[in-house]
Amino acid sequence: MTAPAIGRVAPLPEPWSDEDAAAIGRWGHPEATYDALLLTRCLQRVPRLADRTRALGESLYVHGRLPARQRTIAILRTCARVGCAYEWGGQAAFWGPLTGVREADCDALVIGGADDERWSPDEQALIAAVDELEATGSLSEDAWAGVGFLDDEQRMEMIVVCGWYRMICTLCNGLALPVEDWMRPWPRGGDR
Protein backbone atom coordinates (compact mmCIF):
# COMPACT_ATOMS: atom_id res chain seq x y z
CA MET A 1 0.00 0.00 0.00
CA THR A 2 1.30 3.46 -0.89
CA ALA A 3 1.54 6.04 1.87
CA PRO A 4 -0.62 9.10 1.32
CA ALA A 5 1.15 12.11 -0.10
CA ILE A 6 1.97 14.90 2.32
CA GLY A 7 2.80 17.72 0.03
CA ARG A 8 3.31 16.45 -3.52
CA VAL A 9 5.10 13.15 -2.90
CA ALA A 10 4.27 10.34 -0.51
CA PRO A 11 7.03 9.55 1.98
CA LEU A 12 8.61 6.11 1.88
CA PRO A 13 5.98 3.90 3.53
CA GLU A 14 6.70 1.84 6.60
CA PRO A 15 7.72 -0.78 7.40
CA TRP A 16 11.15 0.28 6.17
CA SER A 17 13.89 -2.12 5.24
CA ASP A 18 16.87 -2.16 7.59
CA GLU A 19 18.87 -0.24 4.97
CA ASP A 20 16.18 2.44 4.58
CA ALA A 21 15.73 2.80 8.36
CA ALA A 22 19.50 3.22 8.82
CA ALA A 23 19.73 5.75 5.98
CA ILE A 24 16.80 7.79 7.30
CA GLY A 25 18.30 7.67 10.79
CA ARG A 26 21.60 9.15 9.56
CA TRP A 27 19.92 12.48 8.76
CA GLY A 28 19.93 15.13 11.46
CA HIS A 29 21.69 15.56 14.77
CA PRO A 30 22.37 12.36 16.75
CA GLU A 31 20.68 13.86 19.83
CA ALA A 32 17.56 14.97 17.95
CA THR A 33 14.32 14.10 19.69
CA TYR A 34 12.05 14.69 16.70
CA ASP A 35 10.73 11.92 14.45
CA ALA A 36 12.33 11.18 11.10
CA LEU A 37 11.91 14.23 8.89
CA LEU A 38 9.26 14.18 6.21
CA LEU A 39 11.93 15.43 3.81
CA THR A 40 14.21 12.45 4.48
CA ARG A 41 11.33 9.98 4.26
CA CYS A 42 10.41 11.40 0.85
CA LEU A 43 14.00 11.59 -0.37
CA GLN A 44 14.68 7.99 0.71
CA ARG A 45 12.38 6.85 -2.09
CA VAL A 46 15.52 7.36 -4.21
CA PRO A 47 18.23 5.91 -1.93
CA ARG A 48 21.27 6.77 -4.06
CA LEU A 49 20.13 10.37 -4.40
CA ALA A 50 19.41 10.55 -0.67
CA ASP A 51 22.88 9.17 0.18
CA ARG A 52 24.71 11.61 -2.10
CA THR A 53 22.64 14.54 -0.85
CA ARG A 54 23.16 13.66 2.82
CA ALA A 55 26.92 13.13 2.46
CA LEU A 56 27.66 16.75 1.57
CA GLY A 57 25.20 18.19 4.08
CA GLU A 58 26.58 16.04 6.88
CA SER A 59 30.16 17.04 6.09
CA LEU A 60 29.24 20.72 6.46
CA TYR A 61 28.42 20.03 10.12
CA VAL A 62 30.84 17.24 11.04
CA HIS A 63 33.92 18.50 9.20
CA GLY A 64 32.99 22.13 8.64
CA ARG A 65 35.22 25.00 9.62
CA LEU A 66 32.55 27.69 9.63
CA PRO A 67 31.68 28.61 13.23
CA ALA A 68 28.33 27.08 14.23
CA ARG A 69 26.52 30.36 14.91
CA GLN A 70 27.66 31.88 11.62
CA ARG A 71 26.75 28.70 9.73
CA THR A 72 23.27 28.75 11.30
CA ILE A 73 22.75 32.42 10.46
CA ALA A 74 23.81 31.77 6.85
CA ILE A 75 21.49 28.75 6.59
CA LEU A 76 18.50 30.53 8.13
CA ARG A 77 18.99 33.55 5.87
CA THR A 78 19.27 31.34 2.80
CA CYS A 79 16.05 29.56 3.79
CA ALA A 80 14.39 32.93 4.33
CA ARG A 81 15.50 34.34 0.97
CA VAL A 82 14.25 31.24 -0.83
CA GLY A 83 11.00 31.35 1.16
CA CYS A 84 11.31 27.83 2.54
CA ALA A 85 9.19 27.59 5.68
CA TYR A 86 9.91 23.86 6.05
CA GLU A 87 13.71 23.97 6.23
CA TRP A 88 13.77 27.34 8.00
CA GLY A 89 11.34 25.97 10.62
CA GLY A 90 13.49 22.93 11.34
CA GLN A 91 16.72 24.92 11.50
CA ALA A 92 15.15 27.61 13.71
CA ALA A 93 13.63 25.07 16.12
CA PHE A 94 16.62 22.77 16.46
CA TRP A 95 19.89 24.45 15.44
CA GLY A 96 18.98 27.99 16.49
CA PRO A 97 18.97 27.16 20.23
CA LEU A 98 22.09 24.97 19.92
CA THR A 99 24.09 27.76 18.30
CA GLY A 100 22.83 30.77 20.25
CA VAL A 101 20.53 32.13 17.54
CA ARG A 102 17.47 33.14 19.57
CA GLU A 103 13.88 32.89 18.32
CA ALA A 104 13.70 36.65 17.71
CA ASP A 105 16.97 36.42 15.74
CA CYS A 106 15.60 33.58 13.63
CA ASP A 107 12.51 35.67 12.86
CA ALA A 108 14.65 38.71 12.06
CA LEU A 109 16.46 36.68 9.41
CA VAL A 110 13.11 36.38 7.63
CA ILE A 111 11.62 39.83 8.19
CA GLY A 112 14.63 42.07 8.84
CA GLY A 113 17.54 43.52 6.93
CA ALA A 114 21.24 42.84 7.13
CA ASP A 115 21.70 46.19 8.86
CA ASP A 116 19.53 45.25 11.86
CA GLU A 117 21.29 46.43 15.03
CA ARG A 118 20.82 43.04 16.71
CA TRP A 119 23.68 41.69 14.57
CA SER A 120 27.37 42.30 15.15
CA PRO A 121 29.22 44.02 12.28
CA ASP A 122 30.60 40.63 11.18
CA GLU A 123 27.12 39.09 11.23
CA GLN A 124 25.74 42.03 9.25
CA ALA A 125 28.43 41.44 6.61
CA LEU A 126 27.64 37.71 6.58
CA ILE A 127 23.91 38.33 6.10
CA ALA A 128 24.61 40.88 3.35
CA ALA A 129 26.87 38.33 1.62
CA VAL A 130 24.15 35.67 1.79
CA ASP A 131 21.67 38.17 0.36
CA GLU A 132 24.04 38.97 -2.50
CA LEU A 133 24.65 35.28 -3.21
CA GLU A 134 20.90 34.72 -3.40
CA ALA A 135 20.28 37.79 -5.55
CA THR A 136 23.17 37.37 -7.99
CA GLY A 137 24.61 33.87 -7.64
CA SER A 138 27.98 35.43 -6.83
CA LEU A 139 29.87 37.71 -4.46
CA SER A 140 31.23 41.12 -5.36
CA GLU A 141 34.70 42.14 -4.23
CA ASP A 142 33.05 44.25 -1.50
CA ALA A 143 30.99 41.31 -0.21
CA TRP A 144 34.05 39.02 -0.28
CA ALA A 145 36.06 41.59 1.65
CA GLY A 146 33.12 42.13 4.04
CA VAL A 147 33.39 38.55 5.23
CA GLY A 148 37.15 38.94 5.65
CA PHE A 149 36.80 37.87 9.30
CA LEU A 150 36.58 34.38 7.76
CA ASP A 151 39.63 32.83 6.13
CA ASP A 152 39.46 31.81 2.47
CA GLU A 153 38.48 28.21 3.27
CA GLN A 154 35.67 29.39 5.54
CA ARG A 155 34.44 31.82 2.88
CA MET A 156 34.38 29.01 0.31
CA GLU A 157 32.54 26.83 2.81
CA MET A 158 30.01 29.63 3.40
CA ILE A 159 29.28 29.68 -0.33
CA VAL A 160 28.86 25.89 -0.36
CA VAL A 161 26.60 26.02 2.72
CA CYS A 162 24.37 28.60 1.07
CA GLY A 163 24.29 26.63 -2.19
CA TRP A 164 23.53 23.31 -0.48
CA TYR A 165 20.71 24.83 1.55
CA ARG A 166 19.34 26.59 -1.53
CA MET A 167 19.14 23.16 -3.15
CA ILE A 168 17.46 21.65 -0.06
CA CYS A 169 15.03 24.59 0.13
CA THR A 170 14.22 24.23 -3.56
CA LEU A 171 13.54 20.53 -3.01
CA CYS A 172 11.30 21.23 0.01
CA ASN A 173 9.40 23.97 -1.80
CA GLY A 174 9.10 21.89 -4.97
CA LEU A 175 7.67 18.99 -2.95
CA ALA A 176 5.35 21.44 -1.10
CA LEU A 177 6.39 20.00 2.26
CA PRO A 178 4.30 21.32 5.14
CA VAL A 179 5.98 22.56 8.30
CA GLU A 180 6.05 19.71 10.84
CA ASP A 181 4.53 20.14 14.32
CA TRP A 182 7.85 20.47 16.15
CA MET A 183 9.22 23.09 13.75
CA ARG A 184 9.14 26.84 14.33
CA PRO A 185 6.33 28.46 12.35
CA TRP A 186 7.20 31.02 9.69
CA PRO A 187 7.06 34.50 11.26
CA ARG A 188 4.26 36.93 10.53
CA GLY A 189 5.27 39.57 8.07
CA GLY A 190 7.63 37.27 6.20
CA ASP A 191 6.76 37.01 2.52
CA ARG A 192 6.71 33.60 0.92
Automatic annotation (TrEMBL):
Superkingdom as given in the UniProt entry: Bacteria
Lineage of producing organism: Bacteria, Bacillati, Actinomycetota, Actinomycetes, Propionibacteriales
Name of the featured protein: Carboxymuconolactone decarboxylase family protein
InterPro entries registered for this protein in UniProt: AhpD-like
